User: Fold this.
Amino acid sequence: MAYQRLEVLTGTERRRKWSEAEKVRLVEAAFRPGMVVKDVARRFGVHESRAGPQ
Assistant:
């Protein structure tokens, strides 16, 4: 049985705060040969349409 990570956001702040290191890991993962953006986004818990500058 595989376990999936679940992040629960509570309170008024609903946007996740990404550290620079997390952003770098996500971008590096997305640019690896053969990777699909949708799969990388799902792995990091974001929707691929929100993968833009903030």
Observations:
- The two ends are 36 Å apart (CA to CA).
- The CA atoms of residues 9 and 15 lie 8 Å apart.
